[in-house]
Amino acid sequence: MLPPFMDPLFYILGKAVFVAALAVLAAALVGAVLIAYSFKTGHFFMARIMLTFVSLLESLIKAIFRTFGADDAIVDEVGVKLRNYINQEKFRKVPREDRAIFMPQCLRSIDCPAKLTPEGLLCINCGKCGIGAAKAYAEGLGYRFFVAPGSGVIKRMIKKYRPGAIVGVGCIMEIKEGVDLCHRYDIPAIGVPLLTSGCISTKLEWDRFYETISDGERSGPAHDDEPAR
Ligand code: SF4
Question: Which of 101, 107, 121, 150 counts the most CB atoms within 10 A of its CB?
Fold first, then answer.
């Protein structure tokens, strides 16, 4: 049996928890509305505040999306776009010679002849996929270019070359984790999501990739979005 003076204390505590839960739910609802708005319009309203919502209340916001029958992957997609949007200014201030690009191996042709080296797969620009031309073009701009078979290579290359900025290509979940990791190391990173996910023969919107690495100049070599495999 609790002493009588504890009753009001529990009452106040209960009320505080209830108010806090309501506040969190309201913040998640606002976050969900802002994310849906950004996804639909491509405009970012209060980008940093939105990113805080996404980072802190991700699970709750996804649950709200599911409750309303919407695809919760939108939350991850907008999260990546927000980070790209916020990072862009800092990214462009880094000289290209000090930047690195990480390509996923799943973008290669299934007949890729590249050999595995300690610095990832060594693309020989055989022409069977778009990576070879991208590598030649990016290296011409000054970038370091890696085709990474896994996150181990990425971490090793970051440790070895200490790039000042990074462009990462991958599926939304990989990019989200990678961009968040770079943020913790204070490296401005831009994520370019694949159009399809999977383990082999994935696709990339190459125009978007070239626009990103050339700082919005929309340049790049002639290419097909779906090269011959
Ligand atoms: S161009 Fe594509 S398929 Fe050819 S070596 Fe490079 S990564 Fe492999």
Answer: 101
Q: Which atom of ligand 1 is nearest to the CA of 147?
A: 7
Question: What does the pLDDT look like over 151-185, one tens digit per residue?
Answer: 889 999 999 999 999 999 999 888 988 888 888 88
Is ligand 1 within 6 A of the CB of residue 108?
yes
How many CA atoms within 13 Å lie on the side-chain side of 77? 14
Shortest-distance Cα residue to atom 8 of ligand 1: 112
For 174-215, the pLDDT digits (tens) are 898 888 888 888 999 999 999 887 777 789 999 999 999 999
Residues 6+ apart with CB under 8 A from 188: 87, 88, 90, 91, 94, 164, 165, 166, 182
- How far does residue 164's CA lie from ligand 1's centre (Å)? 26
What residue type is 19 in one-letter code?
V
Say how many Å lie between the CA of residue 111 and the centre of ligand 1: 8
Q: Where exactly are the structural domains of the chain?
A: 6-86, 95-213
Q: What one-letter code names the amino acid at 92?
A: R
Q: Which residue do the tokens 């990425």 mark?
A: 154
For residue 132, how far is its CA from the centre of ligand 1 (angstroms)? 5
Instruction: Name which residue sits closest to atom 6 of ligand 1, judged by CA.
Output: 123
Q: Hey, is 125 helix, strand or coil?
A: coil
